[in-house]
Amino acid sequence: MLCCSMTRRQHLRRVAILCCHCLRNLAFYNAGWRRGESIFKGQFWITTNGNFLDICVLEWCKLFGDESGKHYWRKVISDPDTFFQELLSETGVTEAKFNDHVQEMRKYRDKFVAHLDSEEVMHIPTLTITLQSVSYLYNYLLDNEGVPQFFADAPKSASAFYSRFRREGKEAYEAWKSNISTPSTQPVMENVR
Asked: Please, which pLDDT band fits residue 188 given cuts at 50, 70 and 90?
């Protein structure tokens, strides 16, 4: 199904680009964590890291969380039923579990990124299925939908792309850490008047 006034070529390219944006932001987010803890305590890095998460969630939801959105996966995949069954197999989850993940990602997006609703506690989504699903979609586009014809500089695989940016993120964080003695740990609200 062709969306809007885009050609199929433009549509495939944009969906592939969204996959890359999601993967890059997820890689940068994950690079900021060691053994379940943020490697920085200063507000600049906490905010920066959180922004990587937020963009990852927004981009993923464009691809998997918004059926009426122009970049929703079913609008670009030629054989959506086969794709979805293979996606479930690749991620090792049931359709119900995948749908639960979609809801978890949408709730985070809707309640904490797009709006600040009355929820008292923010629950960061589990990102394993996020990485697996966007990686599978990207690789599927390359292998089955002709994306290399339309996106000449497309990364050759989701895994290589993600690994490259996770490594870059770790290097940036480590370079910053080695250039300072102590990150600021001043309470955030102290300077808000």
From this structure: very low
